[in-house]
Amino acid sequence: MLRKMYDWVLHWSATKYAVPALAVIAFAESSFFPIPPDVLLIAMTVAVPTRWFHFALVCSIGSVLGGMFGYLLGWQFMDLIGFHIVEFYHFQDQFDKIGGWYQQYNAWAVAAAGFTPLPYKVFTLAAGAFQINFPVFVGASFVSRAARFFIIAALLYKFGPQIKIFIERYFNLLSTAFFVLLVLGFFVLKYVM
């Protein structure tokens, strides 16, 4: 089933609707949606490697705008919407810890969540709820999200045909590894930090 979805996304990623879909998914994932945009970014870059820079830029901008929306939700609508999102991901206990990280590390906490598999959406809500400096938040978000997406896209561009064969050959293993990293990010935030 995952293989069919991969083939479908790979085919769809080369259509005229791929770039808007990438922007929307990147936006939504940064504030409330559970699926990261990396999946579509990878499929699009593999399908049309010469547009890697454009895809990474769209993904980065969409993600930062979504992060800004998450900040707004945390700042103005935490009681109405934000806490429901935090509860959905079972991060009620960690939410206050994130506030402490913001006070201690400020931009570094945002950058860590933006670049790693940590759930960036929880950090965007917390940034608004704890009212960290908005320009610092946006700058750290852009640097970390752009670094993540540009590195992925550039590697796919550089090693395109070989990486496409590798992805197709080891798709099930890579899907499992990606899922494990995603779950590990949630686990680290929930139980370790």
From TrEMBL:
Residues that span the membrane, as ranges: 52-73, 107-130, 136-157, 169-189
Domain VTT stretches: 35-157
Residue stretches in coiled coil: none
Keyword field: Membrane, Transmembrane, Transmembrane helix
Protein name per Swiss-Prot or TrEMBL: VTT domain-containing protein
Species of origin: Nitrospina watsonii
Source taxonomy: Bacteria, Pseudomonadati, Nitrospinota/Tectimicrobiota group, Nitrospinota, Nitrospinia
